[in-house]
């Protein structure tokens, strides 16, 4: 299942609440034996805690949990964690965290955090299902604004992609994994425009390159235009030449 389709389904739900932007904690620290859930409707209740849950709800009286099956799953693979806001008749539930086991191996691999308007604000994912988060996403107004990836498996991001209005605008890469970017890619309209390289890893760009793909595409376009112009000129010359010849011939014969 693609992450995109998953995101679409997630985005469909709208939850309204009025809690201040609480520390919508998706911790990951789960020490000690698990306390009873405040409100779990889980057939897999005994399994909770073994599935790499990252939503924070254990031991929290102000949280409630709902678990269920996603489409095509015959086992519980989705967990929603709600904050309980207000008391008595005013009490209501607000979705703050949701996690999914997308490959149905029993371990949660995507977790999303929501703000008090029901908008997704961030996501973490274990895209290669090794149990370690390798992808971090930030959302702005319902769209991805930043996406970070860990490409060498050290648990820290080394590639950061920035998006403007849903289009890729900039990429920073840390190719020697020293924690600092050394390649910068600048995009225009989602197309790579130029690339800056920090060759000695001192944090400063040593060379700006135009993207070779863009250069080749521009050259190919020029060659095509030249070829088309030559064909056009040849066709015109050929036609006109014939007429001229005929005209001369007919003129000579006059
Ligand atoms: Ca999984
Ligand atoms: Ca992983
Ligand atoms: Ca670096």
Outline:
With 254 residues, this protein is of the alpha+beta class.
Q: Ranges with pLDDT <50 over ≥5 residues? A: 1-48, 240-254
Q: Treating each run of at least 4 consecutive H or I residues as one helix, how many helices?
A: 2
User: Which ligands appear in the coordinates?
Assistant: calcium ion
Straight-line N-to-C gap: 81 Å
> What order do the strands of the largest sheet run in, or round the barrel if closed?
1-2-3-4-5-6-7-8-9-10-11-12
Mean pLDDT: 78
What percent of residues adopt helix (DSSP H or I)? 10-25%
| Rg estimate, integer Å | 29 Å
Extended strand count? 12
Order of helices and strands: HEEEEEEEEEEEEH
Class based on secondary structure composition and strand pairing: alpha+beta
Shape type: elongated
Specify the biggest β-sheet.
Answer: 12 strands, antiparallel
Oligomeric state? single chain
Measured by DSSP, the beta-strand proportion falls in 25-35%
Describe this entry's structure for a reader.
By secondary structure, the protein is α+β, with helices and mostly antiparallel strands. The protein has a domain of 127 residues. It contains 2 helices and 12 strands; from the N terminus they run H-E-E-E-E-E-E-E-E-E-E-E-E-H. The protein has a 12-stranded antiparallel sheet with strand order 1-2-3-4-5-6-7-8-9-10-11-12. The N terminus and C terminus are likely disordered. One calcium ion binds next to loops.
